[in-house]
Amino acid sequence: MDMEIILALILMAMLIAGSLFGLFVQSRLKEHHRSPASSEAIRLVVLMLVTLAALILGLLVTSVKADFDNHDDLYRQYGIALIRLDIRLREFGPEATPIRKTLRAYTAMAILQSWPDEAAPSGTYPTQFTPLFRGSGETKQITAALRSIDEAIQTLNPVTPYQTRIYPILRENLTTLENVRWILVEGASSRVSSVFMTALMFWLLIVFFMFGIVAPRNSLIYLSIILASLSVASTLFIILDLDSPMDGVIKISSAPLRDALLHMDQPPAP
């Protein structure tokens, strides 16, 4: 089971338990603590906390959704950059064929690293990856392949006027590919602080506890507590799942890079 689902279920259980504990405490309060004035004051505090919690949850959902969409757009740009570079290498001539093979292996490795749970692309390429350094999102194998492509393109010697004209475009396409790749690597880490999420969960627990103190005891209230807990927990799940765009239930599609790989495998036009 995904960690996001586990955390959401834990939060739901905590909120239900907090509400039930509030109902228990309510039954033990002395009469003057349950006066209409006391209940109204608690309701005002709960309303304030609920408003702030809703605002924070809404901002978090908006923020992680924007980051997710940005990652999705970057992977589309990544696929386009791979296709454009392959097209220019194909146009350059037979001298660039070894570079195209390395580019294909690089693309296959990028797919396998980013989507390890999906079917691995066909072909011969490294399938075991070693991080560049501890905690790094980049691997030695993929970095070496990209460096090899860069060095090989630098050694190309344009001879014909057409090769001379497209060579700068080739270099520009490679630079674009490298830029997009490193943006993705640097942006792969979580944007949501675990300390902040823990504090928010504690805050929500206090809200549900205080709600239990002033709520009447009947089956409709119990149902409302369960539904409210489920709603808040599902919001937390969405936040955590969108914050991990490469895995989980909601994740970025590998289609842009797989489309680029299919393009590379196409035979040359007659």
Automatic annotation (TrEMBL):
Pfam families: Bestrophin-like. InterPro entries: DUF4239. Coiled coil: none annotated. The chain crosses the membrane at residues 6-24, 44-64, 192-213, 220-240. Keywords: Membrane, Transmembrane, Transmembrane helix. It comes from the Bacteria. This is DUF4239 domain-containing protein.
